[in-house]
Amino acid sequence: MLKVLKSGFYTTLQDEGRFGYRDKGVPVSGVMDVGVVRNANILLENDHDAAVLEITMTGPTLQFERDTYIALAGAEFATTLNNEPISNNKVHKVKRGDILSYGKLINGFRAYLAIKNGFKSKEVLGSRSQYYPITKRGSLKDHEELKYDTYIDFEPKISELKVKSLLDEKVLKVSKGPEFKLLDDEQLENLFIKEFTVAKEYNRMGYQFNEKIKGHDWSMLTSATLPGTVQLTPSGKLIVLMKDGQTTGGYPRILQLSDKAISILAQKKLGDKVTFKLA
Amino acid sequence: MEYPISIRSFGEHAVLIEWPNEVDDAILEDIIQFRSFLKQNYLDPQEWEMVPAYNSLTLIDRERTIDYQMFKAQLKIWYRERVGVKSRLRYLWKLPVCYDLDFAIDLEEVAERLGQSVARIIELHTSNVFTVYGIGFLPGFMYLGGLPKELEVPRRLEPRQKVAKGAVGLAGKQTGIYPQESPGGWNIIGNCSVPIFDVKREEPCFVNVGDRIQFYAISRAEYDLHKIQGEVGIYQFEKIKLDA
């Protein structure tokens, strides 16, 4: 078991997401920054959908009750294993009783803890991703315990990955959304010239920005939305739907973020700036 | 009947197919039929998700990047090919609603605004059959079409922070059930005693887009009984098979 001594601000279990229930209104969920988690699972030679912890802004303190191997990825925190600093993108052996603790957030917003063979919580509708009320709770709580396999003799083929970090990227590559053609010249200019600053409304469901563009009075029938869909509200606000975002919506879908752009945005927090660029 | 459909790229993994921009049972039926056809013949449900809503069908590939030009051409051929294919069975679901004022916190106000009696509002709400045009917003939230004009009432000026699970609401041309507790701005006129979405069931949401819904009024005592039956999973939903 992994003992959650302190759960942190918002720590959730995530895998690649819940697939096959979008037509019943169930968000796909899953890790927000897919790219970095893929690398962590590769290092541990896990299945690509092995469940990891997604750690947000203020990290948890965790104690391992069995030997295993872990890899950290994503946002940079001052992370220590038994008070010794440890780094991202590297396989670390942990022993029974070891304590992993997350200190100050240095760069980015979401960090990941991957573990050999993945966390073994109960699957709900084919996924371990926490999303309330599909799963009983939306995030971990203090003193909770998480199951994992004991591992004592893993010899990783690669023990460290040199990866180009996207944490400082601010250009979001987008393609045209289904209602892109409704935009006029003024809206288009604003959309691709302005910098957009992450507003206080941002979470796993979606991101909003302080800046607006010109609004509209278009009405459309409710239709499907995806993670990475950029909606334009009548008042000119942009809403980027993320992994826990609703599966249908009634606002025009003006842009669609690339997978990589979703990963980049997932690492942004209040006050960070991004721009949109048509791919 | 063949409609003029338009096909659009929607990011790396999805394609959107749109039918004429109307709320129409025949269009919805064509969408459902095409979806069944694709599922049965060409698009493996392990790889593809298909989300129908009103006048659109969105096809989403789980992982792969779609070659849009090629897929678009293929879809046009499949759409012509599908003619005469029967869609899956559709059902009319009878859903129990308790209109007791304990739950129906806006019912008296709605009646007053619409210049009707409370009894008449309940009668109108239970005598009409609604079409499920989409499921979204929340897990199991149905977009129901076919509300009679006499029940059209604007949404509340101030949304509530908390609307109860099962709350049945009216807003504009729509009526619906909140499948879970959530914030909401609809006028609440009752509560559905049985869970629309339940992860414990093999099929967590039995209703499909294209099905029909009819409400019927139940007493407070029946409501309490259903609640218990629903929680232990022995409530039997009443459904009627519809001719395709």
TrEMBL record, chain A:
Keyword terms of this UniProt record? ATP-binding, Hydrolase, Nucleotide-binding
Is-annotated flag, keyword Iron?
A: no
Q: Name one Pfam family in it.
A: CT_A_B
Protein name (database record): Biotin-dependent carboxyltransferase family protein
Q: Where is the Carboxyltransferase domain?
A: 23-279
Cite the InterPro entries for this sequence: CT_A_B, Cyclophilin-like_dom_sf, PxpC
Q: Which SMART domains match?
A: AHS2 (SM00797)
